[in-house]
Amino acid sequence: MSDFTKKIIISTCTMFTLFMAIGSIAVIAFTGPQYGLVMTLSLLAASLLFAILRGIWFTDKFVRKLAYPARIVGFGITAFVALAACAWIGNWFPADNIWAWVSFSVIFLVILVGFCVGYQIYFRKTVGSFDNALRKYHEKMGR
């Protein structure tokens, strides 16, 4: 993919996000909270929180020397708390329904495991492991 195409795609995603956020807030200001708008904003909040948590756990900006499994556990716990908070605030499902929360938790864990397995396969094929990739990055940056 060319750099121009990447810039267009990133710009489109950025503009869409801004339009949805500003539009949702404006409509809520004029009409009051509505389920779809609150859902949109809570999903946007979840996306932002996940991006921040990804930056914390899977880069060396905050956590420099931590094995990949520990990073996964740290990310998994904090991401679950963040997503559960967004689900509760956004009223994604009835807060008093224990089976909804159990289902939510199981689905979260299955997706987390799926992503972990996918990344493990990717890193093994490309650089050996996440730790190796991070080590090579540190060497490249002179750290």
Would you count the extended β strands for me? 0
Q: Averaging pLDDT over every residue, what do you get?
A: 90
Unreliable runs: none
What summary fits the major beta sheet? none
Categorize the overall geometry: globular
Radius of gyration: 19 Å
> Which percent range describes the beta-strand content?
under 5%
Order of helices and strands: HHHHH
The N- and C-terminal alpha carbons lie at a distance of 31 Å
Number of helices: 5
Q: What would you call the structural class?
A: mainly alpha
- Quaternary state of the chains: single chain
The proportion of residues forming helix, as a percent range, comes to: over 70%
Q: Keywords, please?
A:
single chain; 143 residues; mainly alpha; 5 helices; globular
Write up what this structure looks like.
This protein has 143 residues and is mainly alpha-helical. Helices cover 81% and strands 0% of the residues. Helix 1 packs across helix 2. The model has no long low-confidence stretch (mean pLDDT 90).
Reconstruct the topology from this structure:
Elements: H1 3-31, H2 35-57, H3 68-90, H4 98-126, H5 130-141
Helix pairs in contact: 1-2, 2-3, 3-4
Q: Short summary of the structure?
A:
By secondary structure, the protein is mostly helical. The protein contains five helices and no strands.
